[in-house]
Amino acid sequence: MLKRLPRNLSKLHLPHNSYARTCVVNRALVYCSVRNVSQTTPVDSEALAKDSTVNVKQHLIRNSDNSELQNTFYQRKLPEQLIKISTPNGKQLFREAMDAGQTEGFFPLTGAFASQSSPSYCGPSSLALVLNALNVDPKKIWKGAWRWYSDEMLQCCSPKEQMQKNGITFDQFACLAKCHCSVVVKRASKITYEEFLEDLKKVTATSDQHMVISFSRKTLGQTGDGHFSPIGGFHPDTNMALVLDTARFKYPSYWCSAKVLYESLMPIDKETGLSRGYFILSYDDLNPPVSLCQSQTATATPPLTKPERTIPSDTPPSACTSAPSINTNTKLNWSALAKVFCQKIPEDMWVEKPQTLKEVVNLVLRNIPREYSNIIGQRVTSSSMATATDTYIDMLFKDTSASPLYPIVHQAIYPSSTSEKPDSHAVFATLFLLGSPRMLYTSLPRDLQKLFDHYRSTVSSMPLVKREVDRISVEIIELTKSFCTCGKPI
């Protein structure tokens, strides 16, 4: 049985609305009963009156003897300047935005929405949400027999332990996203409010692109600081953006002034010393990004298992390549490989000053990890499987071995061996050298540069070779774009 209401509660300034009056009094009674206060126990009536949104369950938890739930929270109150989407005003804004055609991305996003699995996983969670909304097949099992992106699956540019503890930075998100989809990166300090507004309008008018913002919660009046979340809509009449907060346990989705949201991108991130920004993500099935995090799995490589293409057991350690094997799942330190392209090879070229093309080939091949050739082999295998015959790889081997660069590469790999049949090591190494970026050779003598350029130009008359060389070239360019910052900002 509840005790009599303490006298000092009579000083409460109760609202005129009868329902609100009842709620305040009931909360006061529950507060007293839980605390087991007497009539003479002082009560902060002013605080109780002001806190008109206090959840009775929260009082019960805060003041109970359950030590497990001490200092825990069930959601936060949304700041007044933000409009919760589920309120009448929030719903009205959504209807008007939908009528204006500025909520096209909302539906695929909400159809794939899931709250982040960890307080620090807002970045991976936002990316997983967008990838699922874009219908990107992860080609990886999630649970059971299902392939689906979840935030804990996205580990590439930062160790899992580090992400669990500190989350990810703006640059790390860009790196992680580039492994899975096409990304346009926009740092806040380099864009205007008008550009941000224009991007909001464009992205929310289509379901083929999505925007993820990296912002400071403090600017919005929320608790915490750095956070990632996707944008679900835009209200053109009021210039308000719909933020689909991935931390559903903390804040719901809400409408926010685009101007305030733009300002929230500006505060300096103490981890990087730079402002944050936003990303525009898309995906093209016909031109998927080169996955730099983990190579694709080659399920079968019949053409490369023929006896005449068996790799000699005495292959020298300096050889760039090795034949891809069945069910290969090669993992490679892409950041370290990028440094080889961006730093190690150019430095060695400058120091050693090779005078012949054979010396150049030797220098490059000794720096390339053997694992990288598996990636090239898997790309070639995928191409041959797409044509469903051995003809593709037979012709590719034949055409590549006809390149004037091939005998030089073969001699570099096998100094004391000659063979009339195309060798897979030499073929893949030749393809790599033909597709490698010109920046590797800028310190070479001009005559060697011209000779190498001539060899590269010969692939235009060999469609299959050109296709594989172009594929390798794109991969290396993406690799250097993503990792050659070596910790520097994008």
TrEMBL record:
Domain Peptidase C83 residues, every copy: 68-286
Region called Disordered, residue ranges: 298-324
Keyword tRNA processing appears in the UniProt entry: no
Biased composition (Polar residues): 312-324
Pfam families linked to this entry: Phytochelatin
GO molecular function: glutathione gamma-glutamylcysteinyltransferase activity; metal ion binding
EC number of the protein: 2.3.2.15
Keywords associated with the record: Cadmium, Metal-binding, Transferase
Alphabetized InterPro entries for the sequence: Papain-like_cys_pep_sf (IPR038765), PCS-like (IPR040409), PCS_N (IPR007719), PCS_N_sf (IPR038156)
GO biological process, one term: response to metal ion
Enzymatic class: transferase
Top-level taxon in the UniProt lineage: Eukaryota
Protein name in the entry: glutathione gamma-glutamylcysteinyltransferase
Organism: Umbelopsis vinacea
